[in-house]
């Protein structure tokens, strides 16, 4: 029986050697493959989204620019407007001067239309009746509103095709008006 036991030991030793050889081959195969290495960590440059450039427009507001021109006491009204468009925001800074004490400015906005023609409202300041009080015939309006980027692009492409208009109670179609120019 000693021969059988010896034979079993020999078979078991052969299996162990074969298993070890297979493991050695597997390890060798793994170590011969190029090791995946992590790329050195480099800080990506911080890229803040560039703020859209501000585009400034001016308008010289006169009663004589209205279509038809204003007649009567409010023909003395005048003013100026600076409109700054940055991305999807429009900031209005307008002054009214020389108006009679009874003048009430009710609404103000940008219309589309060339000089001498009337056109539709394109950008509203959101001014409502009673919100702007004239003192000594004048007042200042300062508002920021959202603007459709397509509308901002249309104004940028042809500022002279748009005008700023302020309307009064006596002249609901507009009391002072000025074409936009790049400021």
Features:
183 residues; 22% helix; globular
Which secondary structure elements does this structure contain, and how are they paired or packed?
Blueprint: H1 2-32, E1 54-62, E2 78-86, E3 89-97, E4 105-112, E5 121-124, E6 139-146, H2 149-157, E7 162-168, E8 176-179, E9 181-182
Antiparallel strand pairs: 1-2, 1-9, 2-3, 3-6, 4-5, 4-7, 7-8
Describe this structure in words.
It is a single chain. The chain has 183 residues and is of the alpha+beta class. It contains two helices and nine strands; from the N terminus they run αββββββαβββ. It has helices at 2-32, 149-157, and strands spanning 54-62, 78-86, 89-97, 105-112, 121-124, 139-146, 162-168, 176-179, 181-182. The strands form two sheets. It has a five-stranded antiparallel beta sheet, with no helix packed on it. The chain has a four-stranded antiparallel beta sheet with strand order 5-4-7-8, with no helix packed on it. Strand 4 and strand 5 form a beta hairpin. The longest helix is centred in the N-terminal third of the chain and has 31 residues, at 2-32. It is globular and about 50 Å long. The protein starts with a helix and ends with a strand.
């Amino acid at each position: 029986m000693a021969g059988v036991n010896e034979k079993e030991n020999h078979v078991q030793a052969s299996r162990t050697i074969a298993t070890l050889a297979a493991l050695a081959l597997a390890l060798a195969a793994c170590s011969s493959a190029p090791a995946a290495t992590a790329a050195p960590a480099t800080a990506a440059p911080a890229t803040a989204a560039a703020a859209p450039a501000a585009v400034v427009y001016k308008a010289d507001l006169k009663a004589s620019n209205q279509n038809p021109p204003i007649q009567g006491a409010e023909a003395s009204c005048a003013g100026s407007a600076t409109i700054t468009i940055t991305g999807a925001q429009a900031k209005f800074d307008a002054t009214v001067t020389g108006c009679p004490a009874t003048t009430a400015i009710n609404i103000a906005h940008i219309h589309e239309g060339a000089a001498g023609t009337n056109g539709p409202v394109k950008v509203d300041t959101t001014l409502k009746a009673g919100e702007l009080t004239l003192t000594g015939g004048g007042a200042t309006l300062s508002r920021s509103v959202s603007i459709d980027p397509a509308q901002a692009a249309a104004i940028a492409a042809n500022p002279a095709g748009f005008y700023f208009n302020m309307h009064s109670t006596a002249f609901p179609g507009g009391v002072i008006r000025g074409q936009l120019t790049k400021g």
